[in-house]
Amino acid sequence: MILETIARFTRFARDNPSIDRRSGVSARFSIAAAETVAAAALHRATVTGEETAVARIVDLESVVEVLRGKIEFESGEEGRELEILDHLMRKSKADAVRAHLGGVDLASLVTALEEGDPVVTGDRVTAAAFLASIPDVPVLDEIATRLDADTEGKRANAIELALEGLYLTRRIDKEADESGQTVYG
After folding, report:
1. What is the pTM of this model?
2. What's the pLDDT tens digit per position in 53-68?
3. Contacts 24+ apart (CB under 8 A), 48-55
């Protein structure tokens, strides 16, 4: 699902009129994005002691900053590069949510988040810690089933995708800080 989101991001970048068509968006763009995500997952596993490094939605946050220098923008877009790439990444995540979780009723998750504590994830939050902070609602099993999330890391990634989808549809809030933490609630 992460690689699929990167592929969507690449396609949107190729089709975006703000990006210089002459220089284009190369295959190296996607490869650099995948390497960045893999490095973020490996870093989290190394720092936190997780046994297996699993890429999660939160790892996509670093992709935009890294890839800004890999493409050329049209001359009228100077100063808007990050804004454009952020928009394309949000669009890519939203498409992934629709493709994988379309039709899943996430209202119980929204209600649980509204009534409970916010959920914290980030580049130094293990899958186990993240999953322990999620309210226990039956829809989590449906999310995991839909995304074939059969390990702790994959389940964390699947639930992060659902939370990101809820944020993108403005059903919950999201705040990110410089320390690498993202709070949903």
Report:
1. 0.90
2. 999 999 998 899 888 8
3. 48/124, 48/125, 48/126, 49/126, 50/126, 50/127, 50/128, 50/153, 52/151, 52/153, 53/153, 54/127, 54/151, 54/153, 54/154, 54/156, 54/157, 55/2, 55/157
